[in-house]
Amino acid sequence: MESDDSKVTGPFLITGGGGYFGYRLACALYKKGVKVIVFDIRPPDEEIPGTMEFLRGDIREYVQVEKAVQGVDCVFHVASFGMSGREQLNRRLIEAVNVQGTEHVIKACVANSVPRLVYTSTFNVVFGGQVIENGDESLPYLPLHLHPDHYSRTKSIAEMAVLKANGTALHNGSGILRTCALRPAGIYGPGEQRHLPRIVSYIERGIFRFVYGSSSSLVEFVHVDNLVLAHKLAATALTSSKQHRAAGQAYFISDGRPVNNFEFFRPLVEGLGYNFPKIRMPISLIYFFAFLTEMVHCLLGWMYNFQPLLTRTEVYKTGVTHYFSIAKAVTELGYKPQEYNLNEVVQWFKSKGHGKKPVSPFRKVLKEVVLITAIIAVIFSYLPIVGT
Is 304 inside any structural domain? Predict the structure, then answer.
């Protein structure tokens, strides 16, 4: 399997390469000895190794995209916006990045005779809150008007555009464009910067006091290294040596192990020294709370762009059963996910100073004194006032 992707010489361009997954993919390709160009509006948080090239640019600007793809053999289109939190509520930017940005990438690939395009999509193109058990790629796209958020809707539009572009004649009759789309589950791994820090902040602030939905509900995750592997295999499967077997195809990508969302994060909670919540709330109540939060953000977000605790889409994605078969990726790409757990994630957060700190005896006594003083003050406030 590794020998196959070592035959692919590149150069590779990764849009959104400054992000967590894009950077990990870039490093994996770079280690194969191929030229890698990272295209993003900001550089990665980590150091760019050796001859890997960082090209600052905005996917919303076609001229910049067109310049970036020149001389490239394969584009990994990873860049997107609006996946979680308050980003999900910025419709204008979501449309510009996910839809117009993808159109720019496709157009630039055709104009510059780039023969391969691998698109990083999402489970959400078929999921909108309904129960899905062991679904596969034969499932139709969720009708656009049924998507509960702009991110999922625009990712659907973008994926359809990428797959439709498969077979498009390249400029000057230099061949045809071959495309495919990978639909990953929620990404995790040490250093992940979008979801895990938010979860840890809720744990440390004492907000993570309950779980919701059925204890039997199942979702999926994908370790960043498994997702990197899937992308390398997909790029190889678009070449003539693999009979272009991935051309025009979509693939669900996960670790292949459905799990309850909250149980998945139990090792993280307990590994950082906190108690796992015992209270379970109905999902309908949490969904209603998320709806109200979004409405408040809609009214006041222009003045104070606060981070919602949860959005409606996040409630569905974490509390409603939806998992998919990876059989097609295994058969056609040769995808064999490795087994991972959250131990390395826990250690990463601990190395950054996270984790429950022991309370000193002095602070314990001080806390008790303050509590007793407050109780006494409340009691005395109810005593009758003695006349002078």
Answer: no
Using alpha carbons, select from 51, 41, 47, 6 the residue that is nearest to residue 23. Answer: 47
Token pair of 94 as six digits: 């979501």
Contact between residue 83 and residue 194 where contact means Cβ atoms under 8 Å apart: yes
Separation of alpha carbons 352 and 349, rounded Å: 5
Count of the separate structural domains present in the chain: 1
Does a structural domain hold residue 354? Answer: no
The whole-angstrom separation of Cα 311 and Cα 308 is 7
Residue 3's contacts (CB-CB under 8 Å, 6 or more residues apart) are none
Per-residue pLDDT tens for 272-298?
999 999 999 999 999 998 888 888 878
CA distance 244 to 221: 28
User: Whole-angstrom Cα distance, residue 371 to residue 138?
Assistant: 61
For the segment 11-22, what is each residue's pLDDT rounded down to a tens digit? 999 999 999 999
The Cα 236–Cα 190 span in angstroms is 27
pLDDT in tens, 58-110: 999 999 999 999 999 999 999 999 877 777 778 899 999 999 999 999 999 99
CATH assignment at residue 14:
3.40.50.720
pTM attached to this predicted model: 0.88
First to last CA, the chain: 92
Q: Which domain holds residue 228?
A: 2-193+220-258+323-341
Q: Where are the alpha helices (DSSP H) in the chain?
A: 2-6, 20-30, 62-68, 91-94, 101-111, 150-164, 196-204, 224-236, 261-271, 283-300, 312-319, 327-333, 343-351, 361-381
> SS3 of 340, please?
coil
Under DSSP, the state recorded for 259 is B
Residue 227 vs residues 44, 184, 287, 333: alpha-carbon distances, Å = 18, 7, 30, 12
CB distance 159 to 119 below 8 Å: yes
In-domain check, residue 57: yes
Assigned domain for 387 exists: no
Which is the catalytic residue, given 23, 151, 323, 340? 151
Q: Is 151 annotated as catalytic?
A: yes
The Cα–Cα gap between 266 and 281 comes to 17
